[in-house]
Specification:
The protein is an alpha/beta fold and 476 residues long. The chain has helices at residues 3-16, 89-99, 130-140, 206-249, 290-300, 316-324, 350-367, 380-389, 407-420, 444-454; strands at 23-27, 45-50, 59-60, 74-80, 100-111, 145-152, 162-169, 188-191, 265-266, 272-273, 306-310, 332-337, 372-377, 396-401, 421-429, 459-461, 469-473. The protein folds into 2 domains: 3-202, Vaccinia Virus protein VP39 (Rossmann fold, 3-Layer(aba) Sandwich); 213-473, Vaccinia Virus protein VP39 (Rossmann fold). Helix 8 (380-389) runs parallel beside helix 9 (407-420) and helix 9 (407-420) packs across helix 10.
Amino acid sequence: MHDTARDIGQRFFETYVELPLAKILEIGSYNVNGTLRDCAPPGAIYVGVDLSPGPGVDIVLEDPHLLPFADKHFDAVVSSSCFEHDPMFWVTFMQAVRVTKTGGFIYINAPSNGSYHTVPFDNWRFYPDAALSLVKWASHNGHQVELLESFIAKRQRDVWNDCVMVFCKGLKSKTGHRRIVDVLPGAYNIRRSATGDVENRQIHTEDMLLLDEARARFDAREREVARQTSEARSLQAKLYHIEECHEASLGFQASPATGTSPSRHIDVNGQSLTSVQAYEFTSDWFSWNIDTWRRIFADAGFSPRQVIEIGSYEGRSTVWMIENLLTGEGASVIAIDAWAEGAEIDQRGMEEVEQRFDRNMAIAKQRCPNVHIDKRKGTTPQVLSELMVKGLQGKFDFIYIDGGHHASDVLVDLVLGFQLCRVGGLIFCDDYLWEMSRAITETPKLAIDSFLTCYRYKVRIIPERFYQIYLQKTAE
């Protein structure tokens, strides 16, 4: 017996059962972890019935819907955490009415929520209005039953929200009779009669309210993580800038065309080489991911030969992949971008951005002549669909998604990218926590979560820090 069931059962006896030698019947009295017998008033003549013999059971019922007692025999009939298991609880209720004395009370406590628990079946959940139906059912069967109170109790330490219903047989209850709900804080959707209004009306269940609270806390933490991540990225970019300045102080010359220091060329062995001609970059949203990428590819045990990059921009990540990942014979990268103007800050001046990309790819081609660089200008659905029409499903080792941020765009990138990736290949998706203050449909997170829900048996999440999401395709 859970905590609120015991507490409310105790309150029922204190409120309604005043006779010193009251005859009480409990339906479903098998003692698993307590019964209402523990709460009964001293001196009560207490009888417990159930379907199986055991502790707390005085009589085992041969017919679960026939109580072996005379009419009007008990002062009170009680049942707690039983009606949800009863396949015909309305029949059992009529038996309870039959054996209750006129003026006696019927107490039912049954769950309105909670986990599925089969003893041997779990058939029902109850709301306070169920009591109105039982009153009508009793009247239909020729019995007068008055509803005294029905309500949902607020949970305590356990997960259950009890639906409590108290009836009086006959129409002789005292006007102004005190009720359990008067001394039970937090009860809601309260009915004090079959005709009165609902008090403390609450549309949402306590489960729903607690879930909303948890979501609000989670969203607040996500926003804080996003803020801290943004700060970390900014600090990382400053560190890279300090490194570049340090290199310049050691003798490297700034590019006359851009005024920026030349990029380092880091080969697969991690050795630093000076550049003959500098790449041109005005932003860096990639470099802080390099260490993570190195770990993942080292753990994966392969160097990709066929790569698709969605969202190449100036080509910083493209260049790094060309110089560090695409080291085998026949390696190639398909770099996809629309290079079209848009509302986001990184979608302005795209004609110059594309020109920088082209110049950077020309330099990369000089440095790594064995890598085939395939620039594809267009939307992702257009370009990826063309690749699929050519029969290239499952031909690519690595898909990097860093294009648009709207959830609908990212979802298309993920679904089509999954089709083109081979089993065992890797799919990285950037910006999982990008600008969490925006509407959820305007960020990649919704798309990534939806994709992971639909493809959860076909991909493996690689555990790494959370701003990017790293996946390995495990099945078609």
